[in-house]
Amino acid sequence: MWFTTMILANLRRRPLRSALTISGVAIAVTAVVSLVGIARSFENTLLAIYQSRGVDLVVVRAGGVQRLGSVLDEKLADRVRQLPGVARVSPALAEVVSFEKLDLFGVLVRGLPLESFILEDVNVVAGRRLAPGDKRTVMLGAVIAKTLNAAVGQTIEVLPGKPCRVVGIFQSRNLFEDGSIIMPLKELQELMDRQGEVTALMVIADDKSKPGLDALAARISSLAPQLEVLRTRDYIETAIEVRLARAVAWLTSTIALLVGTVGMINTMLTAVFERTRELAILRAIGWRKGRIMKLILGESIVLGLAGAVIGILLAIVITQVLSRLPQAGRLVSGDISFGVILQGLWIALLVGLVGGLFPAVRAARLLPTEGLRHE
Predict the structure, then answer these.
(1) Greatest CA separation found in the chain?
(2) Which of 14, 58, 8 is nearest to 233 (CA)?
(3) Total-model pTM
(4) What is the structure's pLDDT at 326?
(5) What is the pLDDT of residues 254-282, one digit of tens each?
(6) Residue 201 exposed, middle or buried by CB count within 10 Å (0-12, 13-18, 19+)
(7) Which three-class secondary structure state does DSSP give residue 243?
(8) Pick from 361, 349, 205, 227: which is nearest to 294 by CA?
(9) pLDDT at residue 92 in the model
(10) For the chain, which ranges sit under pLDDT 50?
(11) How crowded is the C-beta side of 27, counted as CA atoms within 13 Å?
(12) Packing angle between helix 2-12 and helix 289-323, nearest 10 degrees?
């Protein structure tokens, strides 16, 4: 207890320097927790769209960099449906559109057959579902409907000069889905001049065991050249959009962590220099080198953990604010998993250890006589 009290007292003696060091660590932790948390939330949200419907396999065209660039023949769905082991199949066409007047970009539009199992559990909160015979009609997720300020009966231009009537608004437990637009498959194909094309086939298997899915994937792959059949998780994790989000998050976080670590080293080295006489006296009265190192490392770890607490709180506030902005609210849920928070704590602890290690070694090597020479 006395040792801990001494560590805290030493930090309080230099409040400005301690505050600046804590701020540097807090910024680094904020970057890690918020950016990595948002990237992971984005990935989990995409995955939940498929897992909530029981989708086991996703069929796309092999070799594509972007999943939305995949092109398959719509008739392939009928051939897959006839394979043994296939419970259900749904083709889907995905496109991304923008509403430039509202500074709204990257809105997902999904074209689905009206009999698709994806539409079965759609919770319509206003208007009605898509129906046979609908022409240029859409259903809007609750989030995108609010962002566009669109209601049932109004029209929106999915493409410039191509108005579509809103027949229903649906609400989902999935944020990404709530920010999307759904159209009848044939209508979206015609709108985008992609008749007979789909982006992917979503497959529900009878046998969900690994051997069963592997066998079914092999049977589907044999139907046509250049087919890639992926497990749902693999389909999301290998998507270029998800990988880019991860890479940008970690790249930015790494830069922030390096800055925070350098700041910690600088602070602790300065503290050791200023306290040369004090540390030398401690050595003279019997403190061992290990105890001196524990003192310096203890101070750096406390600074790191204090920065972690502030950084995590800032990250939570930032993600909550982003989730309420129209431009980001379709992608950012505002939730940060406990795993990411724990990751932030461990990183702050690592910054404290790495940032305090060299100054601690330097302090431990001080000789008692150095305190007499130090002014």
Answers:
(1) 94
(2) 58
(3) 0.73
(4) 58
(5) 777 777 778 777 777 777 777 777 777 77
(6) buried
(7) helix
(8) 361
(9) 92
(10) none
(11) 15
(12) 60
